[in-house]
Amino acid sequence: MNIHILTVLPELLESPLNHSIMKRAQEKGLLQVEIFNLRKWAVNEYGQIDDYQYGGGAGMIMMCEPLSKAINELNNQHQYEEIIYTTPDGDLFDQKEANTLSLKKNLLIICGHYKGIDQRIRDHYITKEISIGNYVLSGGELAAAIITDAIGRLIPGVLNNETSALFDSFQDDLLAPPVYTRPADFNGWQVPEILLCGNQNKIDEWRHEQSVNRTQLKRPELLKEN
Fold it and tell me: What share of the chain is helix, strand, coil (3-state, %, to 5)?
């Protein structure tokens, strides 16, 4: 799978995408993440990619020309199935969307910055707009890193135990159950006996029950959506 990210601040993405699971995914050849600096397609020798907005108002806007040139050139090379724009007014990113996107082969993520990108780019190039939450960041780079991580870990072979992702929170619109490890008794705090019984069916039933209870308590809206 190829995930390409177009940004004005590539250095913000270097650390989160080059360690841990994302690093292993790339080393295994299962995921290729490439970061492209939009200033390569700047409108002048000064690296300009933004300008004042028509109609006045505070803040700069990312210009049509560099974005259009970059998208056209990259898309001609890779034929993206989705061109994604990270924006606070996009569709809220969730596990279902991560699952869907993990089945794609080529994705381009465009990181917004300043006051955003010229609307004409959104109208004519963007196929999917994604928000990671109801708040505003300084730019779309952190959002792009989160989306890439959520997608990349779902690719078969990325996780050492491929069943692990199947039991993540939100996979079945439920939160994950509580988890425990050794020792079974710590400061008098006991691991639930059911987890020590050796009966996997009973353990699975208990975990499902705990997931439902936890979801009902903490995120009841997830149950209402079903």
Answer: 40, 20, 40
Give per-residue pLDDT as tens, 43-58: 999 999 999 999 998 8
Mean per-residue pLDDT for 59-83? 97
- Residues 64, 33 contacting (CB under 8 angstroms): no
Other residues' Cβ atoms within 10 Å of the Cβ of residue 158: 22
Q: Which pLDDT value is given to residue 114?
A: 86
User: Rounded to an integer, what distance in angstroms lies between the CA atom of residue 79 and that of residue 209?
Assistant: 44
Q: Using one digit for the tens of pLDDT, what is the confidence trace for 201-222?
A: 999 999 999 999 999 999 998 8
**Rounded to an integer, what distance in angstroms lies between the CA atom of residue 114 and that of residue 98?**
26
Collapsing DSSP to helix, strand or coil, 75 comes out as: helix
* 2-7 and 32-37 beta bridge pairing: parallel
The model's pLDDT over 117-154, given as tens digits with 9 standing for 90+, comes to 999 999 999 999 999 999 999 999 999 999 999 999 99
Q: How far apart are CA 114 and CA 78, in angstroms?
A: 27
Q: Does residue 160 form part of some domain?
A: no
Structural domain range at position 33? 2-152
Rounded to whole angstroms, the Cα distance separating 73 from 65 reads 12
Q: Does a structural domain hold residue 8? A: yes
CB burial of residue 183 (10 Å; 0-12, 13-18, 19+)? exposed
Which tokens sit at 211? 């997931």
Question: Do 74 and 106 fall within a single domain?
Answer: yes
> Helices 141-152 and 20-27: crossing angle, nearest 10°?
60
